[in-house]
Amino acid sequence: MEIFKANAGDDLSRYDMALLISGVLDYRTATDDQKRKEQEEITDYDSIPEQYREAVKSSFALGLLSGYPDGSFSGEKTVSRAQGCAVIERLTRILLGLAPQQTSADSATDQAAG
Questions:
Q1: Shortest CA distance to 23 belongs to which of 69, 55, 62, 61?
Q2: Beta-strand (E) ranges in the chain?
Q3: pLDDT below 70 — which residues of the chain?
Q4: What is the domain range of residue 37?
C-alpha cells in the first residue's frame, strides 16, 4: 500500500486513515448495502478521489470513521492523536468480534445474561 512509504513524522490524512483501516479489515465486514447507504450520506463523496472511495465507505459503514456535522468526510484534513486513538479502539473491538461501541466488559455481561 502506498501509504507506508510516507515518513513517520508526516501528518495522517483522513483518507490515509481510511486506507489503513481497510487494509486491516480487507473490506470483508461491510456489506454492499451498508456501503451504498454511507455513500449516499457523505455530502462530499463525489470529491473523494477514486482510490479512497471504497475504504471511506467501508470505514463509515463499520462505524470506524464518521463525518463532520455537515455530512462531509473532508478526507484532506489530518487525524488528531485523539481521533486516531478512538479509531484504533473501535478497530480493536471489531477485530475482537464486538460492536464498535461495545466494550469487552459489555460483552462479558451479555454472555453472563445468557
A1: 55
A2: none
A3: 1-8, 27-28, 101-114
A4: 11-113
Q: Residue 8's pLDDT is what?
A: 65
3 within domain boundaries: no
pLDDT value for 25: 82
Q: Is residue 25 part of a domain?
A: yes
- Angle, in degrees to the nearest 10, between helices 32-41 and 50-61: 110
- Number of domains present in the structure of the chain: 1
Give me the residue label for grid cell 462530499: 44
Predicted confidence at residue 30, as pLDDT, reads 84
3-state secondary structure of 62: coil
| The pLDDT of residue 31 | 87
- Here the cell at position 108 is 462479558
Residue at 60 is within a domain: yes
Provide the grid cell at 93: 473491538
Please state, in angstroms and rounded to a whole number, the distance separating the CA atoms of residues 26 and 29.
8
pLDDT for residue 98: 82
The answer to whether residue 1 sits within a structural domain is no
